[in-house]
Write a structure and sequence with these properties.
By secondary structure, this protein is an alpha+beta fold. Helix content is 20%, strand content 24%. It starts with 10 loop residues before the first strand and ends in an 8-residue tail after the last helix. The N terminus and C terminus are likely disordered.
Length: 91
């Protein structure tokens, strides 16, 4: 499920938020764990997003389409906003 570096076949989804600025999510093109780009470290293995809007717990996966990645990323951000998580930041 994806290597240590972002590959050309990985899917990406970018979201602009009021609270956190631009968030860039990525996952393998065949689906799998969704990660959030680490700030200032493009192309490295980012933080895995988890249920509840944080980075700890049950990791979230997406299907093999960009629409699935976008749906998962939006749902995670909604959970994050509703839970007002404060642990956002680099790995």
């Amino acid at each position: 499920m994806g290597g240590a570096l972002l590959g050309e076949t990985d899917m990406r989804f970018t979201m602009k938020t009021r609270d956190y600025g631009t968030l860039e999510f990525f996952a393998p093109s065949n689906g799998g764990y969704v990660r959030l780009e680490s700030d200032g470290k493009p192309g490295t293995l980012g933080q895995q997003i988890c249920n509840g809007g944080g980075f700890r717990g049950n990791t979230i996966s997406c299907g093999p389409t960009e629409e699935s990645l976008a749906r998962v990323a939006r749902a995670w951000q909604r959970q994050r906003r509703e839970g007002n998580k404060q642990d956002f930041g680099g790995a």
